[in-house]
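Researcher: We're reviewing a set of sequences before deciding which ones to prioritize for further study. For each one, I'd like a predicted 3D structure that I can look through quickly. This is Chloride channel K. If possible, include the structure in token form so it fits the rest of the review sheet.
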Amino acid sequence: IERQTSNLHEGPNPVVVSAEWLLKLRCCLGAACGMEWFAYAALGIFTAILSFLMDLSVTKLLRAHQWLYANLEGHTSLQFFCWTLYPACLCAVASSFCHNICPSSTGSGIPEVRTMLAGFELPPYLSLTNMFIKFLGLTCTLAAGSTVFLGKVGPFVHISTMVGAYLGKLCTLIQSSALDFEFLLMTWCPDLQLSFTGVLFSVEVMSSHFALKHYCPCFFSAACGALTFRLLSVWSGDMETLRALFKTNFSTDFPFCPLEILLFAVLGVFCGAVSCCYLFCHRWILRFTKTNQIFIKILTTEKVLYSSMVAFLLATLTFPKSVGQYMASQLTMRQLLTSLLDNSQWSAPPQNTSLQPLLEWSSPGSPVYLPLAVFLLMKMWMLVLACTLPLPAGYFMPAFIYGAALGRLLGEGVAYVTPGQKWDMRLNPGGYALVGAAAFSGAVTHTLSPALLAVELTGQFSHAVPVLLATLLANGVARARQRPSFYDAISISKALPHLPSLAKALSTEDF
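Model: Here's the predicted structure for Chloride channel K, in token form for your review sheet.
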């Protein structure tokens, strides 16, 4: 009796009250359209908010670096240390977070998520600590800028996967039905802030894991995420209205000459061949880091030192007053892609057009082919080296930008060797850059969704046919002889449990 009296004086049990509130929430939301649909919308919205906050933080850090570098004008030595030590320190901080707090937060994260979707449990990769460290580490990596030349897509897929895992547990608690696996599938879709490409990319990368019944929820979650991200960009003043993420001015009356279809096909084959070289170098560096005893020791005990040294080396090579002046090193990743998609001919710019994109790549009077060639030659091995950094990093957008540079070089070359033709003044090197970006990134990842990604990012449906043609041809070249894709190579290198579809790739490659 005394125990019951004391319980009455203590008040209601918090567990009972929470259960009652969850039951009421389930009844209210479930009566409308099902609790899981609200969770799908919440997944897209939360992912978009995290992406927006990350982009905002990265923009502030990049502007701080640019401001500091500009205010040191006239002091070359101080500018050099500012240019090199800033990204080196950021990479060291990102690597320190991963090494000391959560080692599973390094890398892309896509191979590990695919492994979990295959039915294997990797609990550390879905922890709250991992999500927090991955977010901070990726912010530092992106703030290092185009010097390190790493992207966002892969790690952010991993971050949103962790968000989806917790939402799935919440829905399971409220609805008493297991939705964890479905939410792991949903998390792949809102990450590109695009309504359709995120879904198709998830279908291709996950291959047999994806069921048709998940199409509608995935598109719904992706649409919620894309709309939220665009609205946040408008409200912050980054965009004036809801439009394509990369604004272009391609002609719709005469987008390309019919004969250029052959050139686009050649570009697709060329991008496929270059992707084979890139993937070979990537597989070689992965094998080297797993077999060389010195690298094994460094990447085991001295990750922070290694990351800072590699970042310092890359920053030294991209210093604007040395080789960096031929690589447009002062441009951010977004500015690089925007300048490469410029529709004017840099070799013979028309009157009344902005010369700003050209001036960022070369000085007046110098050939435009030199900086593009130097950019392609240097970024090839620099990106392969950056892939060894033990920090959160994405590799899709660097491949997309590299392909855009390949296409831009071919477009400028065609404009140079065909002067005086009727269609020469209408030739658009930016269209070649768009086609090259989709073809090369698709060949590297063995996917076709970059074709739609290129169209949706720029809003240029006029080049949809050349983009799809080049992406198909590039994939055909890259997939020959059962070569593994970029993500497949990482899965094999890390000895992650993989699907039977990788068995042939594993047997044909020396891992």
